[in-house]
Design brief:
168 residues, alpha+beta, Arc Repressor Mutant, subunit A, Alpha-Beta Plaits, 2 domains, 39% helix
Length: 168
């Protein structure tokens, strides 16, 4: 039987189950969706091959590991330097940087990082400000995280996007 182009609703449902709980077994998914575990495994492999599932990870409570403070740093760079600066931020603080994004608007880069205390943050800021091309930083302490997720699966995915995945 030829493979159907794109991804199916069943594959999207499997993806949602994995996003909800990355430790869920194929057997559990199969039971909930009325499939066989082998069928679930086959569909997960397809999602991996298409690059929809990029990897698997554990969510960590950083406070329990001594890094209880989370910061958002907005950065302005010299024109044309944002990509270079963004890469350098990751290089200088790989144990602290959770995310680095090049953005539009009044700032060029947003960084989310963790630190154990104010002293550690100050040391990180000194390193960041020493990167050639950095003009300015604006740092905010995250007071409360209302929602934090590594991924979501949209409820509505345009059909043309689903079809284009078959061509990937």
């Amino acid at each position: 039987m030829p493979r159907r182009k794109g991804i199916t609703n069943r594959e999207l449902n499997i993806l949602k189950k994995l996003v909800e709980d990355g430790r869920v077994t194929y057997t559990q998914i199969a039971r909930e969706l009325g499939m066989s575990p082998a069928g679930v495994m086959k569909k997960v492999r397809k999602l991996e091959e298409l690059g929809i599932i990029k990897g698997y990870t554990a969510l960590v409570d950083h406070a329990k590991l001594g890094k209880g403070y989370k910061y958002i740093i907005l950065m302005r760079t010299e024109p044309g330097k944002h990509a270079e600066v963004a890469k350098k931020v990751v290089e200088i603080a790989p144990q602290n940087v959770l995310e680095v994004h090049e953005i539009t608007g009044p700032y060029d880069i947003v960084v989310k990082l963790i630190a154990g205390d104010q002293h550690e943050l100050n040391e990180l800021l000194k390193k960041i400000l020493s990167i050639p091309g950095v003009r300015e930083t604006n740092t905010s302490l995250v007071l409360e995280t209302v929602r934090e997720q590594a991924s979501i699966v949209p409820d509505e995915i345009p059909p043309e996007v689903l079809r284009s995945l078959a061509k990937a």
